[in-house]
Design goal:
Radius of gyration: 28 Å
Distance between the termini: 54 Å
Number of helices: 24
Structural class: alpha+beta
Number of strands: 38
Shape: globular
Oligomer: single chain
Largest sheet: 8 strands, parallel, barrel
Strand content: 15-25%
Helix content: 10-25%
Strand order of the largest sheet: 17-18-21-22-23-24-29-30
């Protein structure tokens, strides 16, 4: 059972031309499937507030409608119309028939909600003649009855004067008690909030506990008693078996100098340069690390991995973005329980299918998973700790944050509040076993939505939205996390993400030990599934988040630079950096010469919009000679430009989903392309994001030509395919066998000849050279103020593409930015670009490159008399006007 990421949604996404990219959607886990199958009985009536039920059955003079409760009681309904406010709150129900609860029956609501409920349409003159019967969805009425007070409750373990109070929201429960270290303790229900709580003595500290919840469970059609961990857990025993009564303010959980930890200076989101990194990938193959695969690997200052991160930080990288590090549900947390492949993997041929077969044999029981399968949102994952049983995970997560800070890096967490690993009565269902049918998003028939891969959550419901906000604030305040990346953010309401922003902004160094205003937020603003097109609420999508200061991943430049999209049957579809038109690979998927030329020029327009920060109103001349705005450039039927300001769109050429950049280029560049040229193409591709206005992200190891042996979805592919190799002598990961069949077998015919080709396997000179060239570009980006425009107006004034138009060179983009001129030459040959307006002006190669690591870029030239810039093939050269460095 390894749910996350990518397969299920890809076909639908391709049809919808969403081209998800930075994270497509996890495959449905066996657990999720099992939980969904238990939803046998439908629940088509929706009780949206204490007075209103929406149900698609139509009332007639011959019918009567009512709710029937477990004790045989009846709540009478009468036809009504939804108000404008109700329609706005429930747009997907706006056209449905509505019913008003008889005022005489409304005081029965709280009791009725604590047992089974049925909506019945019967013959008006015969109570026993039932015409329609269905279950009832209750999240709306629960919010109406309880949310106002419940929102103010402090849930989970809260300490006052050394005494803990444990609180859980369970308004539909018939009884809740506390199982504390093997003994049962009664809890008290607050009727106004639906919160059950109990206050204990100081000796409860660090004791294991679970809640024992007696509740009606629609998924199995009966009342059950669930023993379940705390959704607001602050600590756990191994494998998440029990919560612990832990106070995160306990000094024993803090590393030395934690209270006084000095973070690197915060940079605005528009200037963030981010390395996306999976904790286990980082160090599991690093022979110089004393703590391979653990949080503590980030405290090994002398390891190859930490030395490389430090070099990146000194060059301008500001954040490390950690793939999920909260408690997730698909890895045995004790190392002794983790299976390992039993094959001699290194002895097998580079193009063999045996490596992937062997890795797949233990994938369900090994120590590897990306972790997009949340179990407890606010506890560090135990498999990365030296001991998963108890407080080590808390202390060592903090040591990791401190280690990154000492290396000059701030910490971003990848958070996944849009789904859970399981729902219903599954053992790994937490939320749904406490308040069944509330936390998960339900479809019209009452089944749990799974468009995100797994049982979806409903942050539009008050208490799920509160959980998101409370969890984020805990990570920020108690763990000093500096930023958050929201997985599938478009499945959240925009209001929920703005509530997170507001809560963070309220954190101050004096009161909370952190400056919440400096914490950055970004996420995947993809638009799909049951929430698509604002069907249920205003979503946190690319378009809707513009102007909020919260960034969304932009897939526009990624596709233009790499070529094609994540769902192509033929992976050889080329783009700007991979040789489209200028170095064709012979694939019929690329079309004829004229088609390739037209596609390439359009890709260049997309890249120009990306270099502006994906601004909707940025105006330039496109390759057709037309004066256009960014929003008028087409991206698969959608506007290419959607941002209102620099910082609204996050640029990237690769991330953990889909093939690494090196692997994508391996497929797309002509097979005869040398390793040296492949390395140069990689740097060109990275430069389009690195040198853009707005934030940019790259996958850790991409500057080192990181490969996953062509695996497009490595969420469960183990260390063999995923580990980062920091020492160039160990290679870049290419040629470690055919990638796992589950997501790659259809591409094996293309992969097999590449995996044995010497031209595709880089050596140390290519690996270290690409990294050094990338770091030079980072230094330029972070030291030249022209790259950091604060407003759309500033970008419009500073940025231009002087050679854009009908005469533009295919494969070359010339960008003028203040006193800088940047030439992106993606072609395999040397190119000259004459800018008549600059004739007579004095330009020279930027000092960082003129004295930098790349000998090839140093052969770039400038002819003052004509304003001509000459740049070698597959090279990005930055020129600066005399005396203008750093302006």
């Amino acid at each position: 059972m390894k749910p996350p990421r990518a397969s299920l949604f890809r076909t639908a996404a391709a049809l919808a031309t969403l081209a998800l990219g930075a994270a497509a959607v996890p495959a449905v886990s066996q657990t999720a499937r099992a939980a969904t199958k238990t939803q046998a009985a439908t629940a088509e009536a929706q009780w949206i507030d204490r007075a209103t039920v929406v149900w698609k059955v139509e009332h007639t003079a011959a019918t009567a409608e009512e709710l029937r409760s477990a004790d045989g009681g009846t709540l009478r309904l009468a036809p009504a119309a939804l108000t404008d406010a109700q329609k706005a709150a429930y747009p997907h129900l706006a056209d449905r028939p509505a019913y008003r609860l008889d005022p005489r029956d409304r005081d029965k609501a709280a009791t009725a909600l604590r047992g089974p409920l049925t909506a019945v349409q019967r013959a008006a003159d015969d109570r026993d003649h039932v015409l329609h019967r269905t279950g009832v969805q209750i999240p709306g009425v629960l919010d109406d009855l309880y949310a106002e007070r419940a929102r103010r409750a402090r849930l989970g373990p809260v300490f006052h004067g050394g005494r803990p109070t444990l609180s859980v929201w369970a308004p539909t429960a018939q009884n809740v008690s506390l199982d504390l270290d093997g003994r049962t303790v009664a809890m008290r229900r607050d009727p106004g909030s639906g919160v059950w709580s109990v206050t204990g003595s100081p000796d409860w500290r660090d004791k294991p506990y679970r809640y024992r919840v007696r509740v009606w469970a629609p998924s199995v059609g009966k009342t059950v008693t669930n023993e379940v961990t705390d959704p607001y857990s602050t600590a756990l025993t191994a494998d998440s078996a029990r919560s612990l009564v832990t106070d995160l303010a306990d000094p024993r959980l803090a590393p030395a100098d934690w209270a006084s930890l000095k973070k690197p200076k915060a940079v605005p989101l528009r200037d963030a340069r981010i390395q996306e990194l999976q904790i286990r990938d980082f160090s599991i193959a690093d022979r110089t690390s004393a703590h391979p695969g653990q949080y503590l690997a980030f405290t090994d200052r002398g390891s190859d991995g930490m030395r490389h991160l430090t070099r990146l930080a000194r060059s301008g990288t500001s954040y490390v973005h950690l793939l999920p590090a909260f408690d997730f549900g698909t890895v045995p947390e004790r190392r002794s329980d983790q299976a390992r492949p039993g094959c001699e993997l290194a002895a097998l041929p580079a193009d063999s299918d045996q490596q992937q077969k062997c890795v797949a044999g233990t994938a369900g029981r090994d120590g590897y998973n990306w972790g997009y399968d949340p179990l407890h949102y606010t506890v560090p994952e135990g498999s990365y700790a030296s001991d998963p049983d108890g407080p080590a995970r808390t202390r060592e997560f903090r040591q990791m944050v401190r280690g990154l800070a000492h290396a000059g890096l701030r910490t971003v967490m990848d958070v996944v509040y849009n789904h859970t690993v399981a729902a219903g009565q599954d053992d790994k269902s937490v939320l749904d076993r406490i308040v069944p049918g509330y936390y998960q998003r339900l479809l019209d028939d009452g089944s749990v939505a799974t468009s995100t891969c797994c049982p979806g959550t409903a942050p539009e419901h008050a208490m799920m939205g509160k959980l998101v906000v409370d969890s984020i604030v805990t990570w920020a305040r108690e763990y000093k996390v500096d930023g958050f990346r929201f997985d599938l953010m478009g499945h959240h309401p925009k209001a929920n993400i703005l509530a997170v922003r507001k809560a963070l902004d309220a954190l101050t160094p004096a009161k909370d030990g952190v400056d919440g205003k400096s914490i950055i937020l970004y996420g995947e603003g993809w638009n799909f599934g049951e929430a698509a097109d604002d069907a249920r609420f205003v979503q946190a999508t690319q378009r809707n988040m513009a102007g909020t200061g919260i960034a969304t991943f932009s897939d526009r430049v990624r596709d233009a630079v790499r070529g094609g999209g994540p769902f192509d049957e033929d992976p050889r579809v080329q783009g700007f950096a991979s040789g489209l038109f200028t170095d064709p690979n012979g694939s019929p998927a690329n079309g004829g010469r004229d088609e390739q030329r037209a596609r390439l020029l359009h890709a260049q327009d997309l890249i120009k919009v990306g270099l502006s920060g994906n601004l909707a109103d940025y105006t330039f001349t496109d390759t057709g000679g037309r004066r256009v705005k960014g929003s008028e450039v087409d991206y698969n039927g959608s506007p290419a430009g959607y941002a209102a300001a620099p910082g609204d769109a996050l640029a990237y050429a690769d991330a953990h989903d889909n093939e690494t950049l090196y692997d994508a280029l391996a497929y797309k560049l002509p097979t005869t392309t040398s390793a040296a040229d492949r390395a140069r193409a990689q740097v060109v591709a990275l430069a389009t994001a690195t040198l853009s206005q707005g934030p940019a992200l790259s996958q850790a190891g991409t500057d080192l030509l990181r490969s996953k042996s062509l695996d497009r979805n490595s969420f469960d592919s183990g260390d063999w395919f995923n580990a980062i190799h920091w020492a160039c002598e160990d290679g870049n990961g290419f040629g470690r066998g055919l990638p796992p069949a589950a997501d790659n077998e259809s591409k094996w015919a293309y992969a097999k000849p590449l995996l044995t080709s010497p031209a595709v396997r880089p050596g140390c000179s290519e690996i270290t050279g690409a990294s050094a060239a990338y770091r030079d570009l980072l230094r330029i980006r972070t030291t030249e103020k022209a790259f950091s425009q604060a407003t759309a107006e500033g970008v419009q004034q500073a940025l231009s593409f002087p050679l854009s138009g009908t005469g533009e060179t295919p494969g070359v983009i010339t960008m003028r930015l203040g006193a800088l001129v940047v030439v992106f030459n993606a072609t395999p040959s040397r190119q000259s670009q004459t800018v008549p307006a600059l004739a007579g002006a004095s330009y020279a190669l930027h000092p960082v490159q003129a004295h930098g690591a790349d000998a090839t870029v140093r052969t770039s030239g400038y002819e003052r008399a004509t304003g001509t810039f000459t740049v070698p093939g597959r090279t990005v050269a930055v020129f600066t006007a005399s005396g203008a460095v750093g302006r």
